[in-house]
Design a protein that fits this description.
Elements: H1 5-9, H2 17-31, H3 40-56, H4 59-68, H5 70-75, H6 89-97, E1 113-119, H7 121-126, E2 128-139, E3 155-156, E4 165-172, E5 175-182, E6 191-192, E7 205-216, E8 225-228, E9 244-250, E10 257-259, E11 262-270, H8 271-276, E12 278-282, E13 289-293, E14 301-305, E15 321-328, H9 335-347, H10 350-354, H11 359-371
Parallel strand pairs: 1-9, 11-15
Antiparallel strand pairs: 2-7, 3-6, 4-5, 8-9, 10-11, 12-13, 14-15
Helix pairs in contact: 2-3
Length: 372
Amino acid sequence: MKRDYYEVLGVERSAGESEIKQAYRKLARKYHPDVNSGSKEAETRFKEATEAYDVLSDPDKKARYDQFGHSGMDQAGGGFGDFGGFGGFGDIFDVFFGGGGQRRNGPIKGADLRYDLTITFEEAAFGAEKEIKIPKHETCHDCQGSGAAAGTHPTTCPQCQGTGQVKVVQRTPFGQIQTARTCPGCHGEGKKITTPCKTCNGQGKVRRIKTIKVNIPAGAEEALQLRSSGDGEAGDRGGPSGDLYIVIHIKAHRYFERNGNDIYCEIPVTFVQAALGAEIEVPTLDGNIKMKVPEGTQTSTVFRLKGHGIHYRRGNGRGDQHVRVIVSTPSKLNEKQKQSLREFGESASEYQQMGKKSLFDKFKENLRDAMG
């Protein structure tokens, strides 16, 4: 049966990150197999402490362990590898005694790149094809990424025999400790280039400006990310290139605002058009169209133009356009116009002028009801 991880490290459940790390370092020094050669008990204690540290030093694992105990760790997929995710005794001891970490000499994928692309409101609505220019590193065509001049090849580093590392023996209070360091002769590559490629100066990569076509889908929204596979930085040692992520930004429109796949706009109409009704011209993404304003339309009334919004990015169809009518009050009237309005005001009831009952009308009705 496994011991409690807090008991293994000798700390309280309230212990913080630094206290947990300090406790583990103390146990690691005491029970490291290189210090206790041939001791099965020390190896078991060291493995037990490492497993406990792997869990308690990770906030997510620690929270799961605090709630469910060892059973929670088993349900989460279990298994800590040889020693809790570390690359063995040497790597753990390197962490605490300053040794160099092991380097991989295999292919490495290139870094991903990001490009922020600003498009118009219409391009987002209907889609578009754009060309962008990306400065990036590409694999050198002359040496095919090897870094060696044509007709030559990289040679195995004689200092590390192609491993990229050299072993160093250190004398410590615990005895002699053997650690691995990055090879100074090849800088961890495992190979040396005696005749560098003139095009890339032995780097295996060259920096170029690449033109890339980007297809903007209809219905693209703000902050949409498009991935262009393989258009990132070139990889190392024959590794694949990274990817390019294009982040879409949309310019504000002169008339329209967007909410999902619907668009909104405001259209001014005159007092006469609102009162008598009219057919007005309304801008849409498809061009200007005619829209009927019924007689007696009030300000802020919203009309819907079905199917004149943004294309759905997934699926068919489009959203709608919502038109908010704003009645414009006339200003700078001449005397004749003012007189006409006075006559209208005298001949029309307040209900006719307001288009609805005024607060004063409602007050009078309530007063009559109250008095019987």
